[in-house]
Every structure is written in C-alpha cells, then in structure tokens.
Design goal:
With about 300 residues, the protein is α+β, with helices and mostly antiparallel strands. About 15% of the residues lie in helices and about 30% in strands. The longest helix is centred in the middle third of the chain and has 18 residues. It folds into three domains: about 130 residues, Nucleoside Triphosphate Pyrophosphohydrolase (Alpha-Beta Complex); about 25 residues, no CATH class; about 120 residues, Nucleoside Triphosphate Pyrophosphohydrolase (Alpha-Beta Complex).
C-alpha cells in the first residue's frame, strides 16, 4: 500500500525549524503538485494515468519522481515554508503562500490523486500526506469559535487562537472499506458521478456515535440493500488526498443476495467469483490489497 515505504520510514513529529538547501518543498496548485519526472536515462518523462481507466501495475511508470529543492527556490522566503515531516532524513516543507509558483524546466504540475507507482512510492506517500496537511492549513486561518486569526504552536502541530485559546488539530476522518463476501464471491462496485470509474468496494464515512462495525452494516444496507454479518477487521491505511484514515473490513452476506443499489452513490454493484475478479493489487490502495487477498483465498 502507499504507506509501505520500507526500508524508509516516516517521521511525522513536528519540529519548529527553518528549511535548508537540500530539503524538499511541496507546492500545490489546487489538487496539482509541482514535481519532476525523469526516465531511467535521466531525460524528462511524462505519464498521465486517467482516473477513468483500470489501473494495470504492468503499465505503471518506471520513471522517478522528485520534488523541488529548497535551494532551487531562492525567491521564496523561509517564512512561506512550513515544516511538514521527514522520510528517512529527507525533510519536507509546504509552500504556504497564495502566489502561484510557475512551472519551470523539468518541473510541471500533476494531479496529486494520479501519483500511483512503485518506483517512487515514498514520493507518492509524501505527496498524499502533504496534501492532507495542505488542506488543513488552507482551511484554518481563523478561529471557528471567535473569528480571531490562528497562530501555529511552536512545539506541536496545532493552530491556536490567541484570543480565546481554541486549539485546532489536523482533521482525520475515519472511513470504512468493506469486502462483502458470499462464499467464493465478492461484491465489487463503481461510483456514480465521480471521476474515479474503476471497480471498488463499498465504502463510507463513520458518523457521529457510530462504531466502525456499525458503519459497515449501515453502508452495506444503504448502498446495496444487503445485510452483513461476521464483520472482521483486516487492515488500515492513511489516505491523505481525502484527509481519511481508512479501516478495512471483510464481512459475510447475511441472507438474500439481491442487490438494490443506491443510484446516487453507485453506478454498478456486481458479484464476482474469486477466479473472475477483473482487478488486482496496485500496491497503493487498501481496496486493491483487500481484493487481492480475497482472490488469493487469504480471507
């Protein structure tokens, strides 16, 4: 999955520091991120993964991704760069100013949601995690309690109101992904009215006062009109592009297998036998890891 970057490790401990020349700078333009993409021969490369197409790991780009160095941005003051985290000693800073940094030789903007490859998985993970924090910083300039301007704490990743003392921490939204099984069959779905058109699993956010297991039952009933039993936890995954913590569960069908989809949420919901499932592991998403585990008979 995207967070599996071993032997490299994420250090998300916040430190109050200034950037140095070899630190990486993460620059967003909406949902786009400024990066370089070079082939094995060192020449610039470009590859666009259409969200509407099925992901084929064999067709993934083999080129290397990288982010701008601090020393390559001499016109950006240190005060516009916010420390994010480090990955095995490489420090990442977020460009926080509203002025757009233009594309330059070797660097161009790409949609952060399309960065799905093994070659530079640590960069993909850094980009997704940085986007999570970018959205949080972008949306929290003022106190929601009294309206005063927030300031950053010096010791922890927290925004604090100097007027009323309100403390604002990064938002993390728990959500479930459900592999609904019926013997050797797995239910696959496709979203309605979204750019993402690939097969997926049932998913949804945990609501107030709900356990994840209760979310599983509710989402299965709401999206496909089925009942779930024998709910068991599988794995979890941070998914920074949507500020989520994804919790993966498998569950068994309870009773009738007739699918009645919520057409506002789903375009397709189909049962597939274990040997006929049309998608496999992309080594990025929890959804695909769960599908592959079912195909392999591991669950």
């Amino acid at each position: 999955m995207i967070q599996d970057i071993a032997p490299k490790e994420l250090d998300n401990h916040y430190i109050n520091c200034q950037p140095e020349g070899e630190d990486r700078v993460v620059i967003f333009r909406g949902e786009e991120i400024l990066l370089s993409r070079t082939g094995e021969d060192g020449t610039p490369a470009n590859w666009d993964n259409d969200l509407g197409k099925e992901y084929d790991p064999s067709m993934a780009p083999k080129d290397l991704l990288d982010l701008p160095l601090r020393k390559s941005l001499p016109g950006v003051p240190d005060g516009e760069l916010q420390y994010l985290f480090a990955i095995s000693g490489t420090r990442y800073f977020l460009y926080c100013d509203t002025r757009e940094i233009p594309e330059s030789e070797g660097f161009h903007y790409e949609n952060v949601r399309k960065l799905r490859q093994d070659t530079s998985k640590d960069v993909c993970f850094a980009a997704a995690t940085a986007f999570h924090l970018y959205v949080w910083y972008r949306d929290n300039h003022f106190c929601g309690r009294c309206g005063a301007e927030l300031s950053h704490d010096r010791n922890v990743r927290m925004l604090k109101c100097p007027k009323c003392g309100n403390e604002v921490f990064p938002k993390i939204a728990p959500a479930v992904i459900v592999g609904l099984c019926d013997g050797d069959r797995l239910l696959l779905t496709k979203y309605a009215d979204r750019a993402y058109k690939r097969y997926a699993l049932i998913a949804g956010f945990t609501e107030i006062g709900e356990t994840p297991e209760e979310t599983v039952k509710r989402e299965v009933m709401e999206e496909v009109g089925l009942r779930a039993k024998n709910i068991r936890y599988y794995k979890s995954q941070p998914w920074g592009t949507d500020s989520n913590l994804l919790l993966g569960f498998f569950a068994d069908l309870d009773g009738d297998d007739t699918v009645r989809i919520d057409e506002e949420e789903l375009a397709v919901a189909e049962w597939f036998h274990r040997d006929e499932i049309p998608i496999g592991d992309d080594h990025i998403s929890l959804t695909r890891a769960m599908v592959q585990a079912f195909k392999n008979g591991e669950v």
